[in-house]
Amino acid sequence: MMGHVLGIKELPEPERPRERCLERGPGALSTTELLAILLRTGRKGSSATDMAGALLAKCGSLRGVSALDPKELAKTVGLGNARAAQVAAALELARRFTEEEVHLAETLSGAEEAYRFLKPRLRDLPHEVFAVIFLNQKHGVLAYRELFRGSIHASSVHPREIVKAVLKENAAAVILAHNHPSGHVSPSPDDLRLTEEMKALLTHLDVRVVDHLIVGGNGYFSFAREGLLNK
Predict the structure, then answer these.
(1) CATH architecture of the region 8-98
(2) What is the distance between the alpha carbons of residues 154 and 164, in angstroms, rounded to a whole number?
(3) Average pLDDT in the chain
(4) How many angstroms separate the CA atoms of 87 and 68, rounded?
(5) Alpha helices in the chain (DSSP H)
(6) Which of 12-16, 131-135, 188-192 has the highest mean pLDDT?
(7) 3-state secondary structure of 1
(8) Is beta strand 208-215 parallel, antiparallel or unpaired with respect to 173-179?
(9) Among 81, 69, 36, which residue's Cα sits nearest to residue 55?
(10) What is the per-residue pLDDT for 154?
(11) Which homologous superfamily does the CATH classification assign to the domain defined by 106-222?
């Protein structure tokens, strides 16, 4: 009797993550299995689950995967452009979901909520970014913009660009933010000088600096919480 192609229902349990997702819900699947659903197929001679496991092993974690841009991702474990785009899109949706939760809130009530908003955007970047959350009178979110990249210090953050952005968004208040790729969140002397400079500048525009957050690998530093904006 001629052989036949193994059907989906005949595949071993670990090789049917899509079916298990539908039957039991995504919460029942491992991270590797969820990634396998996005990848759909593996390379020749390997399954999607094998490739997903190799990707996680190579990057160390989902955070490691999300830190790669799509072109870098495509080269990792032979993922290729199509699979890399699928994974990058899923991770971006996760970031936007987190961001949307804050946008739907009436106000940003404090440093912890601002950190929840900033964490998926800044935490895992390999380079420094200076960003601003623009707020209305009630501290509702108007917009979020990443304004500068590179080594963040007073000479590399251009006040004119921040003023233009504040006027464009008609913001009444702002939360300044930048990341430390090293993971350490203690402010440097440059961070302290920059915060004082921006606070003085924006006060002349009647725009309040609500906070300045430094985002690192496993946490954040809040200038407001530490009393550094009241000096």
Answers:
(1) Orthogonal Bundle (1.10)
(2) 17
(3) 83
(4) 11
(5) 17-24, 31-39, 48-59, 62-66, 70-75, 80-104, 111-122, 159-169, 189-203
(6) 131-135
(7) coil
(8) parallel
(9) 36
(10) 46
(11) Cytidine Deaminase, domain 2 (3.40.140.10)
Specify burial of residue 9 (Cβ count, 10 A radius: 0-12, 13-18, 19+).
exposed
Give ∠ CA 182-184-203 in degrees, rounded to 5: 110
* Whole-number pLDDT of residue 183: 86
CA angle, 153 then 156 then 162, to 5°: 100
Domain map (residue ranges) of the chain: 8-98, 106-222
Question: Between helices 80-104 and 31-39, what is the axis angle to 10°?
Answer: 120
Question: CB–CB of 177/102 below 8 Å?
Answer: no
Cα gap 161→168, rounded to integer Å:
10
CA distances (Å), origin 100, targets 31, 85, 118, 132, 207: 23, 22, 12, 16, 24
Calpha distance 134→158 (Å, rounded): 17
Q: Distance (Å, rounded) from C-alpha 194 to C-alpha 80?
A: 42
> Whole-angstrom Cα distance, residue 178 to residue 213?
7
Q: Rounded mean pLDDT of 97-116? A: 76
144-175 pLDDT tens trace: 998 988 765 544 778 888 889 999 999 999 99
Identical fold for domains 8-98 and 106-222, yes or no, is no
When mean pLDDT is compared across 17-26, 105-114, 192-201, the lowest value belongs to 105-114
CA count, 13 A, side-chain hemisphere, 203: 8
The SS3 call for residue 221 is strand
Q: Which residues pair with residue 146 across a beta bridge?
A: 131
